[in-house]
Amino acid sequence: MSFLRRKRLFIFLISFIILVALIGYSISERQEASTLEKFFNDTVGWIQSAVHVPVSFITGIAGNVSDLITTYEENKILREQLSQYKGLIYEVQELRKENEELRKAIGETDSIRDYEPIHATVISRSPEQWIDEVTINKGEHHGVKANMVVITADGMVGKIRTAYEFTSKVQLLTGFDQYNRISATISKDGKNNIYGMIEGYDKESKSLVFRIIEESEKDVKEGDLVVSSGLGGVFPAGLVIGEVKEVGFDQYGLTRTALVEPAADVYEINHVIVVDRSLEEREEEVEEQQ
Amino acid sequence: MSRVYIPLILFVLLILEGVSIRFLPPQIAAGDLLFIPHWILLFLILVCIFYDKPRTYHAVIYALIFGFLIDMIYTGLLGAYMFTYGFAMYLTHILKRAFHGNFYVSLLLAAIGTALSDIVIYVIYSVIGFTDLYWTEYASVRLLPTIIINLIFLVIIYPMFVKRFIRWRDEQDWSS
């Protein structure tokens, strides 16, 4: 009996050591996922995309009914907005043409605003809700790489954490911490823009924390639109992040921070666009120059 | 046949867990409360009570394998679910000897198993820094809703599988 008890203790201790070793391995800074992880994620991802279709059809029915009830009201508002947009489209086209011509004139054709969209569908969401992660059905094979930004029609939702061969993991904005900063800006008419960094997600106020680095003559107001500035080198410029909700000081009272409400709803995402910035990062050249 | 069916059902549950948030109404899903599906664990608790004999450890082995798959596919933190599920199943295996296998015992063991594994996962995650919730807040925001939603799931799957498990267990005797 004493042998059995000792054996049990032995197994428990060994499994505890294995647990610590595995956790240590998975939180270490890995660039690439292991082959085993790639294999299982791709295999399961393939089945997930098959299961996703009937499930979203069934769960969609309930959503459709509530949509129908509000359709009439929405239609009224949309029609009003549509008439305003017609004028706007003309203006945008003219500006775009002018911009292109000016760019040609100075010989710079690539802009940090340009990007190649990769359309993808969300096939699953991590059941562990402390890990804000969704899986999409496009991977390295389709040109997705780690750290690319992911947007929906409303705005930014996250970035690629790991890309496998045919699927990838998207880290949502709600799971951003201080290691996932986004260089962002608030555009001010006629004056200098306000620059800063999105430094993580505050779970209590349900908003992103925007730390202002460079102030402008004009002050930040509630309702100002925060967009990516493209200065971080990975994300293209001009992607909508959210609206300013509240302005205050940080915990030391030295810099000002704004709470930003994300523009996109991270709980109901189905179709996303992975943004591949056209202008390549020129990091190597910069290093050589130094 | 049970050798094929049980892993297959577990695999289906593994995939359904990934879309589980869609089964909740959006107002609840976007709210403060966290509902974590531990469907694989609950299914294995039924396997442990009604299919496993005192000397077989099918449920523990399946818990280790599918816990590892959850880690790989959904969390990226290897080992956490594997260790937790394996540990919870082993405890269920010991506890079930003290009871007769019936509905109320399953409910009790499921509640204990879910609570235990969710708490162990909370401890592991807070040690690593994935969450910084205080434990009283954790109990009301995540632990209670999770236990309740998982017990509801158990009530749904109980009538579907129990008779089959008992039949499969008796078939084991024939084949061995």
Automatic annotation (TrEMBL), chain B:
It is a multi-pass membrane protein. Pfam families: MreD (PF04093). Keywords: Cell membrane, Cell shape, Membrane, Transmembrane, Transmembrane helix. The chain crosses the membrane at residues 6-24, 33-53, 59-91, 103-128, 140-161. One of its GO terms (biological process) is regulation of cell shape. It comes from the Bacteria. GO terms for cellular component: plasma membrane. It is found in: Cell membrane. Belongs to the MreD family. This is Rod shape-determining protein MreD. The lineage of its organism: Bacteria, Bacillati, Bacillota, Bacilli, Bacillales.
